[in-house]
Every structure is written in C-alpha cells, then in structure tokens.
C-alpha cells in the first residue's frame, strides 16, 4: 500500500477500506507519512467527505493509534464533555469544577485553538506555571486524589489526532464532519470516558453553520460512541454570537472565574449549568436534570466550585495567586473601547468575524507552533436582542500591536449589525 494511492483514491471520491485508513493513520502517527501527504489527504476528505463507515474506521484507527485509558480502577463512571469548537467558549473552565464539586470526579483532555475557534489549553496557559502535559499516570493519580483534571492530549493517547489536529488548524481542513467527528470521538474513546456529553455548536462561529449539519455531526458522534460501548448525549447549542462577553485567552479565564464566583454573563452561566447537569445525570450523580442543575448551582453559591478550580490549578503547577487575583493575568497594552455608531437593537455579533479578528490580534495561531498572545482579545458588552444607544460602549479591544489596530477595529465593527425594530435574543440550545 502507498500513501499516494490513498490520497488519489479520496481525491477521486472513492470510499476507503478499513485497511487503507488504518495504514494511513499508522504511517502518519509513526512519521512515515509526512505532513504534506497528510495535509493533501485531509483536504481530499474535506472536499469529498467520508461515509459513516469510513468515519467510524477513522475514529477507531485514531483512538487506537496510542494507548487507550482504562479509568475503571480510578472512578466508577468516567464522564467527559467536549465542545465542537466556538468563539468565547470557556465552558470547560466552569463546568469541570461544577461537576467535580458535586462529587463526580472528572478528567478531561482538551485541545488548543483551531482556526478561528479558541482552545481550552491556550486559555489555561494564561495562568503561569499551569501544565497541560500530564502523563497518563499523573492524570490518573490526580483524578483519584483531586477529583478534577484538565490537561492536553498526552503523547501516548490518540497521537494521530494530536498530529492531525495541529495540521488541520493551518491547512484549511478543519471544517469537515468526518474529520471533526473522528477527532473528537477518538480522543474521548482513548481517554477512557464511559459517558460523554457533546456540546455541538451551530452557527456563524461554529464549524457547523446549519442545524442540519450540526445534527449530522452530532448523530454521527453519538453512533460512533455507542458502537464503542460509550453512553453519549449531544446538545446542539448556539454559536452565532460569542458565548458570554469575553473572547481571548486570559480574558476568558477571568470571565470563567467571575462565573465561578456567582457573577459572569447570564448566557454563559446558564449554558454551563445545563452542560454540567447533563454530565451529572450521565455520571449517575443526580437522578434528573432539574436536581442536577440545582446541585451545580449550589456549588457556585457555596464557593465549592471555585475551590475546585483552585485545586485544579494548584495540582497542575499553576500559580493560584492569579486565580485569587485575576487582575494579575496577562493584560494587553492597548485597551480601546468601541462605542455603538448608532442606536437600535443588536441584530448580530458575528462570532466568526470576532474569532478571526481575535486570531489576527494574536490570540490564535496562523501557522503550526506559532506562539500566542494570552492577553489580547475582545470584550463584547451587548448580546443580540439588546437595545443599544449610540455612543454606548459596544465592545472593547485588548491589543498589543498598534500597527494592526485600525484593521482590527474595522473587523470588529463589521461583525456587528443593528436593527430598527426589536430583535429576539438567540436561544442557548436548539436541541
Ligand atoms: N474539537 C476537536 O477536538 N476536534 C475538531 O476537529 C474540532 C473540534
């Protein structure tokens, strides 16, 4: 078998056999198939798609490209969550402490920014010292001892996804249902989750732009998970506008901390409570969603959720003084408030444009391995449906490069649309 033949087959729209997929993934993982061939193959998959059977084979090949964790000796039910990627999506930073504070141990392997969408690891690394490279042994030990883990994919778990994820980020091959489904589910399967809550984002700032596409992705991931013997629930949530107010790594950490303290934006708080409730039910910690939501909310009020976040940061080497005093987190040198240029009801805050502008500010990567600037990003002060008066602060740009400021301002302004008549707020969840 040769990699070139597999690339050509996919380029020409042929369905790949399980053997071909396994050969390609094995070769890529071992470094025998170079990045440029994998990039060409990923582009062929993006353009020509994969059948559900191919996608399942790809997922399992990636899941088994390294070790597959068995967490049965550490927890009764390992519950995990994963978002399909969005803008301002700092949900994990709040949901994990909520769930862990309810007594359900939770360990998660997250990713870095992908295209215009932010990455949980990049956010957590705004906290000096925080380690995202735990070994499997460290992961298990911390899960047992502290009840909460949030790390990167260790080198021995689904390494094929680790490599392909970084390559897709910079080759325009993110937005593909089979590549997203296999990326997410391979990590979840290798990570040893028994039950998984998937947060599938829909809209302008998501990889899935329509409800139909999101449903297809969600259904595929649920089927793959079930085939692998895991319980899976998928939620379809809105990503037309950024979640919460903050977009950008340290800004999002600060917003997550505010939320754990009982503040934070209402939409973000509610989103987190609902995701946490599903995890608590999946993990058989609560009998139904209502009691689970109540339990999660109580951990905010009691301070237990914030304490769990602190414990997480401390366990992974982070400096908790930054959590106790978020003013210490990285700060941008240029902070510019952009006022509303007119009065009206906010009709759109295009999450894609804001995400792309955040990457231009340096919050994400233009090419593999680029350093990121944790301080930069946006705070969007209004949500779709709110009435805004001319001159009121609409958004704040946090930047470090004066040379780019005019272009960033133009991008941010172009993300926003007003209506003369009242606009209905966007729903948090569709299904
Ligand atoms: N999240 C992932 O882990 N992988 C993707 O491809 C998209 C979102």
Structural description of this entry:
The chain is α/β, with parallel strands linked by helices. It folds into three domains: 3-49, Transferase, Pyrimidine Nucleoside Phosphorylase, Chain C (Transferase, Pyrimidine Nucleoside Phosphorylase, Chain A, domain 3, Up-down Bundle), CATH 1.20.970; 79-324, 3-Layer(aba) Sandwich (Pyrimidine Nucleoside Phosphorylase, Chain A, domain 2); 332-419, Aldehyde Oxidoreductase, domain 3. The chain contains 17 helices and twelve strands. The chain has helices at 3-11, 18-30, 35-48, 52-63, 91-101, 120-124, 136-145, 159-169, 177-190, 211-227, 249-260, 266-282, 289-302, 304-315, 321-324, 351-361, 405-414; strands at residues 79-83, 106-110, 148-152, 195-202, 231-238, 246-247, 334-339, 344-349, 377-380, 387-388, 393-399, 416-419. Helix 1 runs parallel beside helix 3 (35-48), helix 2 runs parallel beside helix 4 and helix 5 packs parallel to helix 11 (249-260). The radius of gyration is 21 Å and the shape is globular. The termini are far apart. Residues 84-85, 111, 114, 165, 179-180, 183-184 line the site of uracil.
Précis, in short:
By secondary structure, this protein is an alpha/beta fold. It has 17 helices and twelve strands. Uracil is lined by residues 84-85, 111, 114, 165, 179-180, 183-184.
